[in-house]
Specification:
binds adenosine-3',5'-cyclic-monophosphate, 15 helices, binds ligand C2E, 43% helix, alpha/beta, single chain, binds calcium ion, elongated
Amino acid sequence: MDFKSGEIIFKQDQQGDQAFLIETGNVEIYYTHRGGLETSLAILGPGEIFGEMALIDSSLRSASTRATTACKLFVINKEQLRDKLDSSDLTVQLVVKMLLNRLRQQIRNQTGDNLDIINASAHSEIVLDRIKLESQIRDAHQNKEFVMYHQPIIDIKTSKICGSEALIRWNSPEKGLISPGIFIDLLENSALIIPVGFWIIEECFQQSKLVAQKNPGQKFSISINISARQLSNSGFIDTLKMLILKHGINPENFKLEVTERVFIEGGSVIDFLNKCHALGFEISLDDFGTGFSSLQYLSRLPIDFIKIDRSFVMNILGDEKTKAIVSAIIYLSKKLNMQVIAEGIETEAEFKIMKELGANFAQGYLFSKPVELSRLLEML
Ligand code: C2E
Ligand code: CMP
Ligand code: CA
Ligand code: CA
């Protein structure tokens, strides 16, 4: 966009949906007082951006702008900027908003206009809570407050425990034992899932040796939950290989549990999953039927086990349609050489029906809640 010397680009208190990058020329930013008097705030030159403030927090233009020489401006539209900001880290978002507020305060001081004191918005309170939790989780990891619990998985044919799902807990000295429901989203949506994720894998590798000592010669498989973000980390496979060597474990004694979300990530993640499978890990598809279910990937991906989600199991007794869906899932899995784990079994009646429909494995409160490793060892 070209502007002539003296031309107004936009005026104070207007709404804005564009910011500008100055390619050539100079732009004056000026504040207009209620009586019409103008105060110059800055003259900007090539490489500078202006008009971004109204886009970031949807407020009115804080000042007017005009070309002081002939100018060439590159337009940045609102969606472009907001998309980037909205997908950035929460701390970064909050810092940007605080800096904006401070700049607005400065304009007021500089121009002598006394406006209201700026209060943190309700939104920033939620963000602050999350930031606090995020730093507590970081500390929790450093202070080794995470623990892996295990929920037994039963082989339906023999009714014996043949494995477990490793489930993280936070043993906070102040708050007690905390379920992943409170913090797993935050963990998975921050880079923290990478170090914590490797800690989880390493802990499971170590614990598998204690299980083997208790039950020499018997196959026991530990299922480890892996998030999409972990799998898409470029160092994932190399670190996994290093940990296999370090602990001398056999990957065939572990299942990696991934959800359908992994497949939304596409290409490289699927490639990583194939590599894990090639290393010997079994792959289990978690929460099957609850998300982005496409039957296509069942045939194309290295999936060995399907976990039927508790939402199906809990409705199976009262609802013929649910029963038909579960029956079809089990039929299809068998045709595709996959085995079925029924999750969240709480009653004998649920167990009986899953058995009749042909599920291979069962997991749920009926058999045991997730327990500490020492308790799991006692159960074996
Ligand atoms: P998930 O992978 O679907 O794990 C199963 C959840 O169902 C567990 O909750 C388990 O305690 C619960 N559950 C098991 N049997 C029953 C039952 O009979 N009835 C009911 N009502 N619930 C049952 P938990 O341990 O709170 O974990 C919640 C979610 O947090 C997990 O869902 C998983 O997505 C995530 N998570 C847990 N540990 C890890 C981990 O080590 N890594 C990652 N990436 N995610 C984890
Ligand atoms: P916005 O509020 O959208 O519109 C006016 C723009 O002027 C503002 O975004 C900033 O890009 C810019 N601006 C406001 N105050 C100053 C200042 N003190 N120094 C430099 N640029 C400013
Ligand atoms: Ca799981
Ligand atoms: Ca599940």
